[in-house]
Design brief:
This protein starts with a helix and ends in a 13-residue tail after the last helix. A hairpin with a 4-residue loop joins strand 5 (93-97) and strand 6 (102-105). Helix 8 (226-238) crosses helix 10 (281-294) and helix 8 runs antiparallel to helix 13 (347-361). By secondary structure, it is α+β, with helices and mostly antiparallel strands. Among the domains are: 93-211, Uridine Diphospho-n-acetylenolpyruvylglucosamine Reductase, domain 3; 215-323, Alpha-Beta Plaits (2-Layer Sandwich), CATH 3.30.70; 328-412, 2-Layer Sandwich (Alpha-Beta Plaits), CATH 3.30.70. The strands form four sheets. Strands 12, 13, 14, 15, 16, 17, 18 and 19 form an eight-stranded antiparallel β-sheet that branches. The protein has a five-stranded antiparallel β-sheet with strand order 5-6-10-8-9. Strands 1-2-4-3 form a four-stranded mixed β-sheet. It contains 16 helices and 19 strands. Bound molecules: flavin-adenine dinucleotide. The site of flavin-adenine dinucleotide has 37 residues, from strand 3, helix 5 and strand 10.
């Protein structure tokens, strides 16, 4: 181990470091999980990644890949030390192939940058996380991230055609091809998507792209309760509407947003559901009318068609992540129990249970998220210097996770498991977790890739 830094420097020069200040910068992501790496290495291509992983394998040293570190479950935190592999510098767009509806990129590309580049050609990459201006596509693939457009267009998983992956023994493999479909053998691409860096390091990705819709309409409906809003969503879905986005912002979230910016373009008279439909002028007009009918219990319904008005509303929605700190300057948001998902039919019950759990714990909670795909973000706030409050929060988060499982859902719909939710894997998967452990052992027998994550 003594000479590992020299060996790493031989491979990548001064892009390898063991300086304590640099190591400290990489000891956290956007969650509460902490872990100090022994070395930080910034590779620039797959060959370097392969050589680093081979070296680590020879010495049995852990390797934790990291994109932008915006993960909310500690996935990129090196809890067993070892090498932290920062892939954000591998950010080239390698190929734009409009004829075959695809692009090939390196993992460090930021999704917003890809979408700027695609827009001028009339295309887009639909998964749209709230962090799209800062996270990397490698991190999105490793977490199977999603966001506002997934209700219609699917999650990151549905847009990945092929991955170049460095395996635990240093081999570089491809998991797919340029084909938009294939039925040849195991689906290795899907195995890698969502594997959170535990099965391989993604060094390039071939992504399917989608033509931009011609028209969009946004329906903003305020309800007397969040549950009533959730019932309207179910009604719209059962009328055959598939919105291109369907979000909830409860009244606490709206209050916090207005503290951040009192001039926001959002209706403030209840718990808000935002529906967006896209397609042609005619289809969006018809669907907007159908949604309005499904919102018969609403206090108010507003249909926005102007580009500027819609952009203003979506910009306000995107502000939520940053605005949370305004709830109460003495309290901090803790990312636990924040990403549960349930079948859409169970959303009203989940909302009611989350409200009750937070109330019983005496913890202020904001509720927002991608209600159209059953994904509720419950933001819980405590004074993090108060140990008793930590206990209350952990118990409340535990109850939220178990409530989601009880309703046939998942403990994480998009943020991933990392370390923060590892203890629920057994409960969610049962014997399926044994199969995951067997796959991990077969692919990474020494257990050097992102050890300690996913409850493996
Ligand atoms: C304000 C805010 C809003 C957010 N909104 C959303 C949202 O709407 N939807 C959503 O899904 N998430 C959201 N997130 C969470 C986070 O941004 C996503 O999970 C994102 O995909 C993580 O990307 P990253 O590059 O930061 O990955 P990191 O945090 O660096 O890493 C995440 C995981 O991916 C692994 N990894 C990273 N790169 C690679 C690679 N090249 N090969 C193999 N494994 C790799 C890491 O080891 C880790 O396990 C939000 C986060 C914040 C802070």
């Amino acid at each position: 181990m003594m000479n590992l830094i020299d060996d790493l420097r031989r491979l990548v020069g001064d892009r390898a470091t063991d300086s304590s200040s640099e190591r400290l910068c990489y000891s956290r992501d956007a969650s509460q999980v902490r872990g100090l790496p022994d070395y930080v290495v910034r590779p620039l291509n797959a060959i370097e990644v392969s050589e680093i992983v081979r070296l680590a394998g020879r010495l049995g040293v852990p390797v934790t890949p990291r994109g932008a570190g915006t993960g909310l479950a500690g996935g990129a935190v090196p809890i067993k030390g070892g090498i932290l592999l920062d892939l954000s510098g591998m950010d080239r767009m390698l190929e734009l192939d409009l004829d075959d509806l695809q692009v090939q990129i390196e993992p460090g590309v930021i999704p917003e940058r890809l979408n700027w580049a695609l827009k001028e050609h009339g295309f887009f990459f639909p998964p749209d996380p709230g962090s799209s201006a800062m996270c990397t596509i490698g991190g999105m693939i490793a977490n199977n991230a999603s966001g506002m457009r997934c209700v219609k267009y699917g999650t990151t998983r549905d847009h990945v055609l092929d991955l170049e992956v460095v395996m635990a023994d240093g081999r570089v493999i491809h998991t797919g091809s340029r084909m938009l479909k294939s039925s040849a053998g195991y689906d290795l691409t899907r195995l890698m998507v969502g594997s959170e860096g535990t099965l391989g390091i993604i060094t390039a990705a071939r992504l399917r792209i989608t033509p931009l819709p011609r028209a969009r309409r946004l329906i903003a409906a305020s309800f007397p309760t969040a549950e009533a809003g959730a019932r309207a969503v179910i009604e719209a879905f059962s009328a055959g509407i598939v919105p291109s986005a369907c979000e909830i912002l409860d009244r606490t979230t709206l209050m916090v947003l207005s503290k951040c910016n009192p001039n926001l373009a959002l209706p403030m008279d209840g718990d808000l559901i935002l529906f967006e439909v896209d397609g042609s002028e005619q289809s969006t007009a018809e669907e907007a009318e159908q949604i309005e009918r499904a919102c018969s219990a609403a206090i108010s319904v507003r249909i926005a068609t102007g580009k500027e008005e819609m952009e203003e509303i979506w910009a306000a929605r995107r502000l939520v992540g940053a605005a949370v700190s305004r709830l109460d300057p003495n309290l901090s948001r803790v990312y636990l129990g924040e990403d549960v998902g349930v079948p859409i039919s169970q959303i009203p019950t989940l909302i009611a249970r989350v409200e009750r759990i937070a109330e019983e714990a005496g913890i202020p909670a904001m509720k927002y998220g991608h209600i159209g795909d059953g994904n509720l973000h419950a933001a819980l706030f405590i004074d993090i210097t108060d140990e008793d409050r930590w206990g209350a929060l952990e118990r409340a988060a535990d109850r939220i996770h178990l409530a989601a499982l009880d309703l046939g859902g998942t403990v994480s719909a998009e943020h991933g498991i990392g370390l923060a939710r590892a203890r629920y894997m057994e409960r969610q998967w049962g014997e399926g977790l044994d199969l995951m452990r067997s796959i991990k052992r077969a692919i990474d027998p020494q257990g050097i890739l992102n050890p300690g994550k996913l409850g493996l």
